[in-house]
Amino acid sequence: MARLRKFCAYRRVERPYTRFSKFKKYSFIRARPGNRITRYTSGAQLDYPFNVHLVAKSCVQIRSQALESARLAANRAMEKVLGKQGFFLQIRLYPHHVLRENPLASGAGADRLSTGMKHSFGKPIGVAAQVRDGQEMITIRTGKENVRLAKNALRAAAHKLPLKCSVVVKELARA
Description:
This protein is of the alpha+beta class. 18% of the residues lie in helices and 26% in strands. It has a domain at 37-99 and 123-170: Aldehyde Oxidoreductase, domain 3. The strands form two sheets. The protein has a five-stranded antiparallel beta sheet, covered by helices on one side. A three-stranded antiparallel beta sheet has the order 3-6-5. The longest helix is centred in the middle third of the chain and has 19 residues, at 64-82.
């Protein structure tokens, strides 16, 4: 598999010019790469009294590979202590934005091989989610005794993401 390009090339949030239509002649891109996130929810979907959120502190794009890595880190930290039934984890982002690049040949004799901007929309290489400042990215629902564990799990997940994050705890009001 080819090596991923450095993310600094894709970090900036801009208006996506990646129309993907079910009618081929209306599509700006010809194919959509697969999403790497395998599960968006895990754990037991019960009425837990506390929500712990991972909140973005800046506007940025996040690749689906980074979101999956963050999900695995948080899920592993929670399952190690509570098992699969003591919490509920939810990824609240979906990677819609298609990342493209225009690869040019480099090296000896590359001036005869380069195609320039022949296909100006570039080749799709992956998908990313566009995140805004203050947006909740990952949520863990749990009981009062496990809030500290959930905060630590989300801090571990934040290390996998290309932005600064904060962890916010919200108690749900009982009716």
